[in-house]
Amino acid sequence: MSSFQEIIFKLKQYWAERGCIIQEPYDVEVGAGTMCPETFLRVLGTEPYRVAYVQPSRRPADGRYGDNPNRLFKHSQLQVILKPSPDDVIEQYLASLEAIGIDLRKHDIKFEEDNWESPTLGAWGIGWQVMLDGLEITQFTYFQQCGGIDLDLVPAELTYGLERLTAFLQVRDSVYDIEWTKGFSYGDVRYRDELQYSVYNFEMADIAMLWKLFELHEGEAARLLKLYDPKAADKQRFPLLPAYDQVLKCSNIFNTLDARGAISVTERVGVIQRVRKLAVGVAQAWADQRQPAVAEVAQ
Amino acid sequence: MSLASLPFLLEIGTEEIPDWMIPAALESLRLQFEKLEIAHDSVTLDATPRRLVLRAEGLPARQADSEERALGPAKSAPPKAVAGFARKHGVAPEALTVESTPKGDYYTFVRTVAGRATLDILAETLGGIILQIGFPKTMYWTGKGGPRFIRPIRWIVALLGDDVVPFELAGVRSGAVTSGHRRLGARAIAVTIADYAERLRENYVILKAEERRNKIHKELAGVRVKPDAALVETLVYLTEHPTPIVGSFDAEFLALPEEVLVTVMRHHQKYFSVEDEHGKLAPQFVAVMNIPSDPEGFVRSGNERVLRARFNDARFFWQTDQKKSLAARLPDLAHVTFQAKLGSYLEKTERVKALVSTLGGDAHAVRAAELAKCDLTTELVKEFTELQGVVGGLYARAQGEPEPVWQAIYDHYKPESMEDAIPRNRTGQIVALADKLDTLRGCFGVGLIPTGSRDPFALRRAAQGVVKILVEGKIDIDLAPLVDDGTDGAKALAEFLQDRIRYYFKEVRGFLYDEVNAATAAGWSNLVDLEARLIRIRDLRSSPDFEPLAASFKRIRNILDQQKFTGVNATAIDEKLLQDGPERDLYDEYRRIAGQPIESVVSQLRPKVDLFFDKVLVNAPEDDVRRNRLMLLGTLLLEFSNIADFSEIVTTS
User: Fold this and answer.
1) Reported pTM
2) What domain range includes position A98?
3) Are A122 and A147 within 8 A, CB to CB?
């Protein structure tokens, strides 16, 4: 039986052998691996790219104080981006399941329609949820748009739910009972985070402080975007990645405020649009940044 | 000329197509193929999630030869002109024929054009045909500007007889190689038209939906599953090799409401639920897997574990939700958006409560309206949104609300389709009506009006629900004042409702369109009254005198319109101006029947009207006589106009 970390090692190894850069988790809080610049920004443009990384994904509203066997404030996604998507991408994906010990001749695998959309990121794609013996283990998406831009190369995004996959392989009813490594359960490692973050997100987070932070980060992202000049000869230097970090901060603070019950009806749609505007702004500037400045073209 | 008869096979190999789109895609493929106008005997369509297949028999190897003819100079023309004509077509003058036409004899050039090889036509057109297949949503995968299809195309089999129809689409070359079941079959399988289905079968693909369906039914024969034809279809098109397996769950979960258990099984897991011999839910389920067997029980135990986790969640929600009563949740609705421009569900609740009172709802109905949306704040509804209303009803029952109240909450989203029943009691009907009317008024009021296929707030369904509840609940109220709040939206809404009313009576109730037009012209907004009048019109139709009378009414309508005659008033008829004979007879008949139902007078009235039109000149030279006649006819038309505008009836005579 593979432990949680062995499953991660094997999947990383598998995708490394297929030409993926293995990245470490992004060091800013995100709600999903898709939001990391390694996905959100790298899928733009004409350069091929292949990357795999484990991303701890924070969803404040999904916290259950460590009580619910299947729900977590923070779960781990293995995010794989294959840009452009190879013709045999599904075969490669299925073989990755076999690499972690699932004999697919003895299990039932189905691809059920599930298109993905993130209004906050101006992104959407076509795809499936992959069901293994009735359990959703992966979201498989062919990206079509990101930041409101049609993608030049269509990437395949594979998002594995690592806790679920491990619980399946280890035949555990609760994620807290899965073996992280010999002698340590998932609960040993993570229970305290789940409890304490649930308490913070639902009960104790300072709403006024969070709003203030939201506005500060929003302001910084907006300030930078305003300064970006597509005609500048040295636009390659422009700090779009730091600007994007500010957007991610906004998104996470918004999610925390939401879990805290601090976002009213009238505010909600508006706040999502504010974050979207910034995300789309960064994506468009990023797509432009790789183009030569207008002045150079003219010469 | 010999026309060899060839079979044709086209298999579009794809990644998994959404099950519900497949049957329509096949029909679309057939249509595209038939547009080619290549002769063929029969077409067979088949599909699995990974292939759309069209097979046809009896295609000609070539299209028939055709003749092209060009008329040249007259036979009497000088040889130079004839030679010039021949040269133009690249032949010697002797190769021309002479044809007789009505204008004389002419030199004619006739060329036989060889029919094109069917293979060439197909090679040229198949790529385009495939991309023309209609899907609700498409994607691109080869890069920006690349072809669009429902999912990536990975292989194509295209055979005419023994030959590959060569073409390329999205970087895929057509060939004679298919692909088997994803895990049990070979990835590349050479096929001929004759062995295609058999080779697939050897590779764990059952090509025919019918056979997959039968396999599911047959293997379910020993299990008492709740019949669910729609779920069978989903599974038929979600698998290439379906095999049902029976799993079980802990009987203690049966303490949860059946609605919740069934929803988890049906909608979230695509399982059939199972009943015991008394029709009660049994602690079992049937999953359909995409492999032939589960000898080690992995699939069964995996599905059981997933279901257990789902049921545990549901039980957790069921228990936590009950810690706060529905009534206590009312203020929380301020945080749930109904629609950005229309505010929160709390505001909606206030409006619906007021409307329930306007509609004559009692205290139970007002209470139900107050609690109806409170389940939107429960965890169970957040998890299983399709159970909104039902969950509220179940909680209301558990919290001791009276039966009319909890049933009204439970039912207030009904009817959800034309086939669905209306709420079971009057309280529920009133609440459902108020809820739907409020949604319609609100959305139309802020300009959210459905256009074409765009109807994001399901307003058609809401309007259809209003119609169905009013008619089938026999709720005797006038819709017009409820709709008309004096805004621009109100007019659009009134028209929208009238459309749905016509649709309902025509498509659901089977009234003829002219009957519906005639009846609605006499008033559309009290549906109980409208239905009663429609039934009368339909019954009248069987009377042999009715249609001729209706034709006369149409004639009267036309005459009045032509003369721009208005101001009909029975007392304004001047008896002194009536001519003895058919005119006075008609007047006397009118006096005799006035106030009686049309059913009892139609047979006496008809001959009088006929005779009038036969003998009397309406358009009399004297002004006062003409006016008096128009007044008589107008009065007659008016007499029955509260039932219908009979001039709308389409007559065969």
Assistant:
1) 0.82
2) 4-201
3) yes
